[in-house]
Amino acid sequence: MRKERLRLPIIARFLLWQLALVIICSNTVQANAQNILDKKVNLSMDQVEVKKLLREIQRQTGVSFIYSSDIINLNKKVSCRLVNKKLAELFSNVLSPVGILFSIIDDKQILLYNAPTGQKKTMEQAGYGTPAPAIIVEGQVLNDKSQPIPGVTVMVRGAATGTVTDREGRFSLNVPYAEATLVFSFIGYQSQEVALQGRNTVTITLKEDAQNLKDVVVVGYGTQKKMTVTGAVAAISSKELQQSPTANLTNALAGRLPGLNVNQFAGGEPGVDISDIYIRGIGTYGNARPIVIVDGVERSLNYLSADEIESFTILKDASATAVFGVRGANGVIVITTKRGKASEKATLNFKISDGINTPIHFPKYLGSADYAMLFNEAKINDNPGVSPGNLNLFTDEQIENYRKAKGDNSDGLGYNIDYFDFAFKPGFQQDYSLTIQGGSNKARYFIMGNYFQQNGNYRQTISDPYKTQAIFKRYNFRSNVDVDITNSLYATLILGARLTDRNAPGTTANRVMEIANTQPPIYPIVVESNDNAANRVHNVNFPNGMLFGTQTYRFNMLGELSKTGYLNQRVNYLDGTFIMGYKLDALTKGLKFEGMFSYDRQGGYWVTRSVPTESQGYRVYPGYATFYPTDGVDVYMKAGHYTGAYSTPRRSTDNTLGNSFSRDDEIGRTYYQLKLDYLRTFGKHNLSGLILANRSIRIKNNEVPFCYQGISGRITYNYDQRYLAEFNMGYNGSENFAPGSRYGKFPAASIGWVISNESFMERTQGWLDMLKLRGSFGLVGNDQAGSNPSDNRFGYLQFYNNSGDAYNFGTQNNQNPGGIRPGRLANPILTWEKARKINMGIDLELLRRRLTITVDMFHEHRYDIITDLSGADKQGFPSLVGTSAPLLNVGIVNNRGIDFEVSWSDKIGSNFTYTVRPNFSFARNKIAYQREVMRSFPWQYRTGLPVGQPFVYLFDGFINNQKEADDLNTMNNGTGFQKWGTVMPGDVKYVDIDGDNQITDLNDRVARGYPRVPEIQFGIPISCRYKSFDVSILFQGATHTSLLLGGPATYDFPLYQNDEVGKVKPMHLQRWTPATAETAKFPALHYGKYDNNKQYWSSLFLYNAQYLRLKNFEAGYYLPTKWMKRAGLQRTRVYVQGMNMLTFDNLKTVDVDPETNDPNGNWYPIMRVINFGVDITL
Amino acid sequence: MKTKIFNPYIFIVILLLGCKKDFLVRKPDDQMTEAQVFADYEKVNKLVTDLYSDLHSRARGLAFLQHFSLSAITDECRGSTVENGQSRTFNTGGWNPSEQPGSGYKWADIYSTIRISNLIISGVRKYSTPDNPLNKGDLDIRRGETYFMRAWYHYLAARLYGEVPYIDFIVDPNGDLGIAQETFHSVVEKISADCDSAIALLPVNQTDPQFARAEKGTALALKAIVRWMAATPLYNGGILPNDTRKGKSSYHTRDNKRWEAARDAAKAVLDLRSENGQLRYNLYTGYGTNDFVSGSNNKVYSRLFQQFYDFNAFKQEGIFMNMNDKWEAWQGDNYPPSEGGGSRQQPAQEQVDEYEYIAPDGYGYPVYDARAVADGYDDANPYESVKRDPRFYRDVIYHGSSFRNAVRNTATGSDKIGATNSTTTGYFLRKFYREDYRPGNGVSFQIHYPLIRLPEIMLIYAEALNETGGSADEIFTMLNTIRQRAFMAPVPPAVKGDKDKTNEYIQRERRVEFFFENKRWFTARLYLEPSSTTQLTREQAWQSAGSDNDTRSRNFWPYPKCQRMVNGMKPVEDPNGKINIGGKTYRMERFYVATWVFVSPTHFFFPVMQDELIKNPVLQQAPGW
Fold first, then answer.
1. What fold, for A2-133?
2. pLDDT per residue as tens digits for the range A367-426
3. Contact call for A704 and B27, based on CB within 8 A
């Protein structure tokens, strides 16, 4: 088939017309197309070939003809003489007589075909302006084992009709003309086109292809054929992302890609549950976050809907990222959104799902009886030499009472409160999505609307007129339109919008978790109402009960959940991109020029209608009233009902709702890009090239705009798809650096050898489908300094600023204006940090592509790391200088590792297919140089170790008796062996590493365990299908990761919030006592602060946080096609999904989730979701 | 194919031409260069303001250690466990060169402020900053303040660390960063020199709206204070055990000239006169013998309370102060639990015993004086059996005292000793409290904290006179003036001429007058009390006074000043008790509260932080650390 087109003189008309096409349903096109035959022609030709005639008509009218030169004899000579006549006359008078019939496709395309032999069709028979009579084609789609495949999409190429195969793989379709081409496509199989050539029954065998989505891979600023890629890239498709019922796309990524490190360290609170993402681990102690490119522009990927994503790709090595130059060192995430496809029938997909979410794990704490028993023990331990009578202890009787107590003191035996039970319940979530996509040869479109709602898990949210439940809503809109204006000129408009709307109680999730983790069970949540006259006014003001709270335990769980008001955060992301391109084939074949302009805005606001908290010194009090017994809270240490008056620590009425309004960071980006693309094949030589210039201006609030500009280029060459070579280059700069240090060159080269394409490999073709070796080497940069780069801007300039504080002089206490302060010292030659990356890869496809293996090994050498020397570990200025050292390019970090993916797809029997595709990522970094201070001993150096590896004191057993304690305390002239003050029996002893008879911070802490970000992450996706059933499972895990915990997570009676003291966990029952000295696992108990035992940097509380999760589970079923047909639907799938279903870990003792990332364990757990959905395609 | 309308090549060329060369040239336009700052008086003035605003973190009186007073790490008070129990970390020896509670007061903080003072001094010179066009002479005054502040911040450092480097230049980061400490006496000379530069430039009176800026007398007073420090045993004739200080040889021998220098420097302050010929500083004597704070059962004199709130007091006797040191909310924290407080600082029995009583003969004697019992002092009814120094009733809430019109009870209820958040010593803090404040009742005020008050200089003068054989009458005048102002009976005449007895009264006066004013931590050390033979012997005596701590504490007091324990008093129900609260009678009984750690010489100074020593190996760690 060949198509030829002529251009209308006015471009604008094309554009408008094409846009109209997108909007108008294809059926209505026919009506508008009637007048195509009314177009006027002027022809005066004698014995001219049909093809010349057609070309001339095309030139005059702009009408394109579609035909197959195999069928129509274009060399037939005709004559015509038409002066300002309608096109219709041409057909009836000139073409029809020679057996060429026509059918109108749309108002600028006409299909030509031959009159079937023996059927001389006239103009009248064909019908003036009506399409040719429909031809019904029937057939069956089979796999290569001759079993039918249901659900295969069958489309007519170039027409807007199509269908789907039924359970027997059969289909029946109206095709507009006998020579139509059918397109068969189905996920997991290679698409196939079949020309009917007049047949009206076909049987098709589809070839399976697990890799079909990867035939083309996304690379920086473009795409490449997978076969010839030499860089390290990995990608997944929308389908896998859709398996995770989560609001934030980042949470769907764990375990999906080799080389992608994903941890949901932020926890699971609705609307703030964004995962940390790194590519190949961490390569610098500076800013290690990769940049994210969505549709060609650096954008946030937060809250994109999985339904709008076509592909998610990570670029890992220098070859793939060099084009991003000064921004590419941490790797690049490239996301493309869905686009309509040419010749695709308009499909409408509607997806609806509902689910239940529950926090995955809550730690257990001991109840009141054990609390009281251990409390007494701790208090006595705390006060050696003080008679227990002077201490305020629980009586044995009361401890017994607690054991018998129901918990709510209705029996007068005391309280025993379980906070998690009180505060949490399952929540509901919904996800509705509507997508429409389709297109003709001229225009393609994808539009989507998506709504996601996640309701929170707080139980007590209804006691006030306003609702305080945590609710997160997400609205996604997308419209991607591609228009071919002419053969050469094309345009694309990408519009994406996300709006999030988060409602949350006026409290914070962290505070709710902290209350649950720390407040002693012996205190009530609501104080007992009693008839004491002194309380009458309070009883009237708080008929639903008075909340308990004291000067120490200031916050109340019920108060936090129901009386703190609410806040509403709305964030909007608007991304707009306009692309216009021109194919410069006229200049040289394969050359294309493209300009792109994009403007993004991200902003949001907070309406905080919360009850303001109040401060008194460092103490924060809630805005609601709380009460405690006037006789002191110690009344709860005894059985009985309190009958006295209540006092309030701060206020006796609730504060009124505050009403404040604030804005999120207002972020905008303007981006321009010009691109010249070249792709050409000369025999066995395949050449492509890219030159690109871009400029980006990012606005953040009132800061000086962040600017980048640069030029990138790429040349790829391969000979016969066997020998591959590629060269990438970025030349770009950042305003962060002084002139002279501003622009950098970032080159990268890579080569590949497809051994399997060599002639000498013919013998192996039976089992080896593909074998490719790859290697790359190059340089990339990073201009971001520190975790908050905008704080470290303009490190090359020295300024004074207005950051000083005010001071009040005079007896009238007049405020004097704020002082001026000198800023950070400048380093005029500050420049970006650089990464030299080497990558070696091998791609293998074996056993008729059932087994595919991709392995990449890498080594990254990061140097000139932008280093802030102000920390204690770095050799910066002594404090005597009075200011810290400027930022310097001094650090070196090496990062090496391996990532691989192995895929095995096969079938068992005739209907059961399955795929197992484990991936594995290992990355270990090592600080090679960071201008560390001189240390006395080699084990003290952070240099030589991974970034963030914990340094801990080593647990060396417990102090067994008083004599041992005394001996330790008298050491070092009486300052003791351990630096936290005097010790006593049952306390932890630490190893004196340097042998100076003293435990000191610098000398006796050694590196143990692993950094928090796991060195190894892996995923094991398994999917299988049986007839209309499909099941997918993802196991995901991490190892080589350590979790160092303190505070309420591990300490007995932890001190928190400066003066509140928490409770005890079951693990503390294994404490040291004189009787259990042999078997004790934990030190003797102490109340509140006790740094010797409750030591954060202790090997005792360093846990191995490795885990294996059943991350995702999905089971789906395609409803029978017969039912669907009756309902007028193409297909319908019902499914059930689960997320975070099971976790296996080593943290049973400490009883926290392995992804916990709060050092105190006050972490809102991630969600376990069970989700039910229906996916309907029209 | 050719087209007339769309020519992509022209388009490309236009776009490329559109690129400006200076696209990446951006500058933060909200910031200033050094030249811009020093070209303008007003900006230099703001820089000077910074030196004052740093007082808020470097010299916070009420909350030196975050929100704890330094008092809580001395024998004045015991701190509660709130806010990480910071004070208890010190008291139990849990501080060290790598971990030290609190922030803002340390070495690095102080030297960052000193750098700014150096930048101002050199910048004004380098850029010839013009004077204030509206008020000529202001620039010189600001320069004088800057010299003073440089001296002041070095004083703060020397107070904590003993020997420190004196940085009176801008340290060149490219130069030699190995800067060593100087001996204390050398630091004192440099502080004095900077004070002299300041004295030459500063006015006698900083009047509104500039009141509270350093003035001539402030610099004179700082000189007196550092001269006095240089004359005390720590630097003048005392022996610090295991001393490793650079200048130890100069400290180990007593040089009477140091006392003479202190005397003269103090005298210069006392003699300073305003332009009208009046003495610049006088003790505040507002309110009379019949004015009492309401709700105190006529126990707390209004004058003693107003002394810290009435601006006339600041004008008359405030030599240097930290304006807005703390706002009212600090108070609530220190309240007894019955008032919603957390008893953050609990006065210790050690301090309570220092308040003298007024004997029938009309003179003041300590309660541990031999004649006290004969004069009527009853240790089971210690607060009201005899009239104690009026400052006691202002400073301390005790069992049976009237606070806010309510009689306080530490025997039962929420204020009970040992109850959650309550006192552990039997006392609550009262000094500085404004009793009209209640948490959340909307009363708001600032507490301006006196950093140097006139009595401090008077006591230095009196002490220096005593040490140099000066006039005993003059010494008595100094002491009795201070006491008289506080409605306290004078020093008994028998003391006159007895150097040791006089010194005892001077030291006790300092302890009582400056309770909770951040002096005790330093003075205990300046006089080498914790390691003195006298105190160690007394500690031994305490040890052998019984078989358990409570008995020892009942039998042996006043307690040794070794900073190794804290004691309290608890009410015991007793039908014969003299204290009657809520229908019950009590007697008071001493008890042992806690053991503290004090090791000589380690705990005499703050340690230089470990990371500073690593970065600057020339520095020497304080003794014992």
1. Phage tail protein beta-alpha-beta fold (3.55.50)
2. 999 999 999 999 999 888 888 888 889 999 999 999 999 999 999 999 999 999 999 999
3. yes
For residue A160, the model assigns a pLDDT of: 56
Cα distance from B359 to chain A (closest Cα, Å)?
34
pLDDT beyond 80 at B95: yes
What is the model's pLDDT at position A346? 82
Residue span(s) of chain A under CATH 2.170.130.10 come to: 212-345
- Note the Cα B88 to chain centre separation in Å: 18
Task: Determine the distance in angstroms separating the CA of B167 from the nearest CA of chain A, rounded to an integer.
Answer: 8
Residue A770 confidence (pLDDT) above 80:
yes
Residues with Cβ within 8 Å of residue A354, at least 6 apart in sequence: A428, A429, A430, A431, A1171, A1172, A1173
| Percent of chain A residues topping a pLDDT of 90 | 45
Answer with the residue of higher pLDDT: B261 or A227. Answer: B261
Q: Which of A330, A284, A290 is nearest to A947 (CA)?
A: A284
pLDDT at A117 over 50: no
Tokens encoding B272:
């300073």
Contact B36 A800 (CB under 8 A): yes
Are A135 and A175 in contact, with CB atoms under 8 Å apart? yes
Q: Given CATH 2.170.130.10, say whether it is the number of domain A212-345.
A: yes
* Cα–Cα nearest to A884, from B606, B31, B146, B611: B611
Check whether A1155 has a pLDDT greater than 50: yes
Q: Can you tell me which residue has the tokens 């031999």?
A: B370
The answer for B 466-505 residues in CB contact with A (under 8 A) is none
Q: What's the CA gap between A507 and A269, in Å, rounded? A: 12
Buried b (16+ CB within 10 A) or exposed e, A84-116: eebbbbbbbebbbeebbbbbbbbbbbbbbbbbe
Residues of chain A with CATH 3.55.50.30: 2-133
Domains with residue ranges and CATH for chain B: 25-58+113-243 (1.25.40.390), 302-453 (no CATH)
Name the 3-class secondary structure at B2.
coil
Backbone angles phi, psi at A753, to 5 degrees: -140, 115
Cβ–Cβ gap B599/A974 under 8 Å: yes
Residues in Cβ contact with A541 at an 8 Å cutoff, skipping those fewer than 6 apart: A625, A652, A653
State both tokens at B375.
């004069």
Q: Is A552 on the interface with B (CB under 8 A)?
A: yes
Q: Comparing C-alpha atoms, which of B371, B128, B521, B35 is closest to residue A798?
A: B35
Taking an 8 Å cut-off on Cβ atoms, the answer to whether B595 and A384 are in contact is yes
Q: How far apart are CA A1006 and CA A1015, in angstroms?
A: 19
Report the CATH number of the A136-206 domain.
Answer: 2.60.40.1120
Provide the pLDDT confidence category of residue A1120 given band limits of 50, 70 and 90.
Answer: confident
Give how far B89 is from chain A: nearest CA, Å: 8
What pLDDT does B217 receive?
96
Query: How many CB contacts within 8 angstroms connect chain A with chain B?
Result: 328
For A885, which of B47, B173, B337 is closest by C-beta distance?
B173
What's the pLDDT at A210? 46
Which residues of chain A make contact with B337, given a CB cutoff of 8 A?
551, 632
Nearest-neighbour CA in chain B from A651: distance (Å): 6
Helices (H) then strands (E): counts for chain B: 23, 13
Q: What is the pLDDT averaged over residues B115-122? A: 96
CATH 2.60.40.1120 occupies which residues in chain A?
Answer: 136-206
Say if CB B193 and CB B201 are below 8 A apart: no
Inspect the interface and report whether the beta carbons of B419 and A632 lie closer than 8 Å: yes
Q: How far does the CA of residue A382 sit from the closest CA of chain B (Å)?
A: 10
Asked whether the beta carbons of residue B23 and residue A1002 sit closer than 8 angstroms, the reply is no
- Residue position matching structure tokens 């466990």: B81
